[in-house]
Amino acid sequence: MQSAGRRPVVDVVLNGDAAAIGAVPTRAKTLDRLRWGDALFHQLTRAAAVGVLIVLSGVIISLIHGSLPALRAFGFNFLVEDRWNPVTEKFGALAPIYGTIITAFLAMLIAVPIGLLISVFLTELCPLWLRRPIGIAIELLAGIPSIIYGIWGLFVFAPFLQQTLQPFLIDVFGYIPGLSLLFAGPPYGIGVLTAGLILAIMVLPFITSISRDVFEAVPPVLKEAAYGVGCTTWEVVRYVVLPYARVGVIGGVMLGLGRALGETMAVTFVIGNAHRISASILAPGTTISATIANEFTEAVGDLYTSALIALGLILFAITFIVLAAARYMLLRIERRIG
Amino acid sequence: MNSLYAARRRRNGLAMVLSVTATLFGIGWLALILGALLWEGLSGLSLSVFTEMTPPPGAAGGLLNPIVGSLILTVLAVLIGTPIGILAGTYMAEYGRYSPLTSIVRFINDILLSAPSIVVGLFIYEVMVAPMGHFSGLAGAVALAVIVIPVVVRTTEDMLLLVPNPLREAAAALGLPRVVVIGRVCYRAAKAGMVTGVLLAIARISGETAPLLFTGLNNQFWSLNLDAPMASLPVVIFQFALSPYKEWQQLAWTGALIITFTVLALSIIARMLSATRKQS
């Protein structure tokens, strides 16, 4: 032990007493090996990071490559044509695009207010000991795989809606001009409304957990000041918390929207898979992802396959824009919090 | 003055009642879904589910081949995805913490994290299934690996960033090169969090159906061949649930029960791991 102070500690740490004093060649070799190892590991991790970029560009390139035949055959009309006929090989993406947007819109319409109210409960009202269990319960909803929502939606939720909510909606709104179009047709159980409701349940945890996090990041001083001048809890939430957390909440909502747009299995089960655009939200429809999931393995002919991949490309483009916007907004609030 | 105050009180009361209702509503769905799963799935749960193959229509059978298939696909996907994810996360938190590459990768990774999984299926179809000319278990595993990578990258980076810098500085002051500092100090400090990330990734892929539909496809028979289509639990649930046969639908419910409780157990374990880390 007489020597520990005189040797570079690295030798002691790595080799114990193996690197004797004065064994210069051994030490140089060890240091050399470490330097090499370090450079190698550096490049290896860098390559993995670049690999992530390659995966994304691979996704984009392969989708564009795969959809070229369809885009060449139909051009811009692919986006605005609503016929989808595998027999005559005439494909237009309007019906699935419409279905994707309308189901996601319905889901957000329901999930955003409920998600925000839950976060208000969790941050302002809930006793401390209940916060964690309730938060976890809501987040477990996010952990349930989408196929489970699908099978539950098809066998439990859709029949339930068919007997209760849908006849009710038809009775109430069926005779009001204008609204009657929205709720026209028999109650099938499955359809656009059911898909929207299931999506709402699925994106609820995303919206809740992000808005809870940004609500919690509001400086307590601001809230205390508002309470100090006599504001009620609701007024504090409405005029202090929400304005402060606005950007973050919008980011969370966009993240949920990205999920709702791209969700596949749950929607495939309950939307009815009908390639048509119908004003009624009780009617069956289809979405981009449901169309791909249902038809891809059965697609005969290159043009059919290519049209489905082109649908995937459109879906990816839409979600990419939504998610990028969400990230940008969340980044802004992260910077402000510091 | 008094009526204004009463109105504000009323509005506050209404908002608070609504927020409690919303919370009950949210938790209610969890209870309803789990309840339905237990109700429908438990009655079909028996030993034969784990020992018999998927039956032809109208016959009794089990879920042995999809369960084994799912296990193989998941293990393979984790084996492929985790090393890449950990290395990339390490670069972002250690070597390249301030490099422009890191912020680009972080942005792209966040996009991949929430990108629609069916698009991943299309991607793997284009680069693996179409050139090879047939569906295969390997393609399914790679598709799942593409989903594993962003989850692991994200948690690895986050956890390594939480390791206090003085630890790194102390190790570096001993003359240790970065690779040893990372391997023996940072990884050890961040271990629990990184394991959590892998568990979350497993939870995420064990229920994924969409990317498997046209990569791993499905297989009615016992097959361990990675070059051939391979059965997996989610795809079998999809097929059986939409079939008109009672026995198949029952098996779909049972499979759904197995998947859900596996996933929930995984995410609860992950949560407990990260909770103990926060307390200590």
Report what the structure shows:
The complex is a heterodimer of chains A (338) and B (280). In chain A, helix 6 packs across helix 9 and helix 10 crosses helix 11. In chain A, strands 1-2 form a two-stranded antiparallel sheet. Chain A is built from 14 helices and 2 strands, in the order H-H-H-E-E-H-H-H-H-H-H-H-H-H-H-H. In chain A, a hairpin with a 4-residue loop joins strand 1 and strand 2. By secondary structure, chain A is an all-alpha fold. The N terminus of chain A is likely disordered. The longest helix of chain A has 51 residues. Chain B is mainly α. Helices cover 79% and strands 0% of the residues of chain B. Chain B has 11 helices and no strands. In chain B, helix 3 packs antiparallel against helix 8. The interface between A and B is large, with 95 and 92 residues.
Give the overall average pLDDT of chain B: 88
Report strand order across the widest sheet of chain A. Answer: 1-2
Structural class of chain A: mainly alpha
Q: Give the CA-CA distance, first to last residue of chain B.
A: 52 Å
Shape of chain B: globular
Largest sheet of chain B: none
How many DSSP E strands of chain B?
0
Count, helices of chain B: 11
Largest interface: A-B, 95 and 92 residues
Helix content of chain A: over 70%
Oligomerization status of the protein chains: heterodimer
Structural class of chain B: mainly alpha
Poorly predicted runs of chain B:
none
Radius of gyration of chain B: 24 Å
Strand content of chain B: under 5%
Task: Kindly list the characteristics that best describe this protein.
heterodimer, A: 338 residues, mainly alpha, two-stranded antiparallel sheet, 14 helices, 75% helix, 1% strand, disordered N terminus, B: 280 residues, 79% helix, globular
Short précis:
The complex is a heterodimer of chains A (338) and B (280). Chain A has 338 residues and is mainly alpha-helical.
